[in-house]
Amino acid sequence: MNRTRPVWHSFALLALSSTLAAATEPPTADNSNPLTHHNILLADDTIEPTMTVRWMTTEGLREISASIIYGPPKGGVILQSSVTDQDQTKDAKSNIRAYLALGGSRVDTGAGHPKGIVIRAGLTKVDSAKPFFAKIVPGSHVEIELQGVVLSEPIQYHQGTGIMHLKYAIGDLLACSLPGTARNQYLLSDPKDTLGGRVVAGVNATPGALEGITESGGSFDITVNPDDPTMMGYIVKVPYGYFRHLQDPWDSRLPGTFFEPIHLHAEAELIPVWATPLDREWIIESNDPPQSSSDQRGTIQDDSDEQSSDSDD
After folding, report:
1. Parallel, antiparallel, or unpaired: how do β-strands 184-188 and 163-167 relate?
2. Is 3 a member of any domain?
3. Any domain includes 293
4. For the chain, how are helix, strand and coil distributed in percent, rounded to 5?
5. How many angstroms separate the CA atoms of 17 and 73, rounded?
6. Closest C-alpha among 7, 32, 11 to residue 150
C-alpha cells in the first residue's frame, strides 16, 4: 500500500463548509500537542476503502462487496458477490448500488463537531420495485462494513455520532396516507442525540437504536487501527425490522409486509485525537409539541445531494 504521496480528497471542503470557519482556527493551548495539526481533517483518496453488506438468506449468508472511491452522495457501484457468499444465486449482482462520501445529516443539520469529519457509506436500490435484501430471513439483521478509510492525522471516534438515515419513496408514503415530509427517518446510536434538535422520537427517529447494548438490537462499532491511528473502519448492524417506517399503519416487521426505504446511509463523525468531544442534549419526546407550525413535526429536509426520485439518476 503506497501512501508516500497522498492526495487529500477535495470533497471534505464541501462537506465541512458549514464549520470551516471554526475548523481553521488554531488549536488552543489545552488541545495542542507536539504533532502538527491540519486545519481540517481530510481523507486520502489514493486508497480505496472496501464496502461490504451481509445478510442471512434462506439459502445461506449473502455477502456482497466492492472497492469504493470517494464521490458525491448518489449513484455509485453495484455490489457483487464476494468469495464468501453462500447464497448461490444465478446473478452475482445485487439490487444495491453503493457510494462513499464525506459529510452527512450531522453536517447538514449543523450538529457536527467544528473540527470533525463525517464518513458516509450509502446504499441505494438499483430497482426500487425489488427488495433491498432479497430472501432475508425474518428476525435477522443486516450488516454494513466499511474498511480502509485513511485520514490526514490521528483520529478518534466522536462517541455517539454513528447514525443511519433512511429515505422512503414518495409514492409509498402517499399510498399509506403519509405526507411527503415523513420521507426521512433516523436510527441513532446515542439516546441523547437530537441532530441539533431536528428529530422527534417515535415520529422520525429511534434514539438508541444502534447503541449496541443488547444482542437483538442494532450497533455501530468503530475501529481505529492502533498501529496507525489515521486508519479506521466501522461495522453497522441493523435488525431488519428497523427498516420499517415508524408511521407505517401496518404494524408488521416481517419481510415483504412493509415498504422499505429506497435509500439509506450510515455515517459516523471522527475528530482529531487532541479535540474535545461535544455534549449533546436529550432527544425531543414524541409527545412534545413542535417548536412551530412550520417544523413539520421535527422532520428535516431531504439531503439535497442524495437522490430525489425513486430512480438512481
Report:
1. antiparallel
2. no
3. no
4. 10, 30, 60
5. 16
6. 7
Residue 307's pLDDT is 41
Please report whether residue 286 resides in a domain: no
Q: Would you say residue 137 has pLDDT above 50?
A: yes
Sign of CA dihedral 171, 172, 177, 183: negative
Helix or strand or coil: residue 287? coil
Give the pLDDT score at 40.
Answer: 83
pLDDT value of position 169: 96
Residue type, 25: E
Q: For residues 112 and 19, is the Cβ–Cβ distance under 8 A? A: yes
Q: What is the rounded distance in angstroms from the CA atom of residue 65 to the CA atom of residue 51?
A: 5
The answer to whether position 295 is within a domain reads: no
> Average model confidence (pLDDT) for the chain?
81
Provide the number of structural domains found in the chain.
1
**Looking at residues 99-103, what average pLDDT do you find?**
96
Domain hosting residue 243, numbered range: 11-272
Q: Determine the pLDDT at residue 242.
A: 97
Q: Are 220 and 212 in contact (CB under 8 A)?
A: yes
